[in-house]
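Lab notebook, bench 4. Still working through the backlog of constructs that have no structural model yet. Next entry is a single chain of 389 residues. Request: give me the structure tokens for it.
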Amino acid sequence: MARIDSMTSPSKAISVHEAVRALRTELDDRAADIEAARRVPRDVLDSLIDIGCFRLLLPLSHGGIEADLGSALSVFEELARADASVAWTVMIGALAWCDAASLPAPTFDDLFVGDRDVIVAGAFNPTGTIAPVEGGYVVSGRWAFVSGCQHASWLYGNCVEDVVDGRPKLRAAMFDPDEVVIEDTWNVSGLSGTGSHHFHVDDVIVPAARTFVPLVDPPCVDTAIVRIPTPALFALGIASVAIGTARGALDEVMRIARERVPLLEHEPVAANPHFHYELAAADTDVRAARALLMEVASHAWLTATAADPFSLEQRARLRATAVWATERAVATVEDAYRSGGGRAVYLDSSLQRRLRDMHALTQHFLVKRDTFTTAGAILAGQDVEVLVF
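Model written out:
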């Protein structure tokens, strides 16, 4: 494979995708170990870093590949086809720097200019407190669901700085890993390999230049990806992981169907007309979900590259698409699990693991079903006031 540094941006993105595809068999073979370890193993992480997964969307000016959104979603999907935990970890690590892009430019440059890969992890939920002091801010808090926190170069936590007219005024702070305490809390049913532990800080003094107001402070880098509203951006990333997981489930159920002969039957499941119907319907669902996801991602990318504002209607369609695509993927995995028969209930079954991963994924607030209500109200021309959309 040619050196990635010598390629154009589109060529680099294609190279990452091809390398991820080549890694898929290994990831599939190690999925059980990843789940048991509750994190991505260091050697696998190093391979993903070397491939360029975490630099996919970072701008060229800061050592990134600056891929388009659709190419990045395809990489997340490809990884999820093997293992959802690995895909989730990469997706979060490849996108989380977009929040940090609201830092002052000199701080962002200090974080991201250099030869090393910088991976950001953090939590949007404002469960910290922050107050001005001499030299910056004093921060205390505890944050949950911080995927990839054990290998992050920097971590951020969102805080409530004040309450104005009943609305919280937020400020996020960036922490060096030495300033935080990671709590071993990630004992869960699905996405077990993401290492999404809690972390806390107690009265840490953070320089003002390492803080920002999320969803308010403008990005300090001039690149298309940071112009896409971050809730929609992360929602699309989650949906791509869901679609990849569903495609992996269909891969597995087709393999099983060729081998499995049900009780009292004389032919394998693959010869059953009802299975043919269910398989075709599920395959069509996944392809339709992927097609719509890529369509709205393409439209979002065109808007971002043109530096045009995102209308509320466009945001509504982006968020609704992510939820719908995720739900179609969940239904596909559930159907695949049922088609897997009795062997699917065993812990070493990838169908059982994928089912648990998918139901963990749907708990994320960005793909909750009530998103349809907000999106529909916007499309109906109603006044909608939400803090995050």
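Notes after review: DSSP finds twelve helices and seven strands in the chain. The first helix runs from residue 9 to 29. Flag for follow-up if needed.
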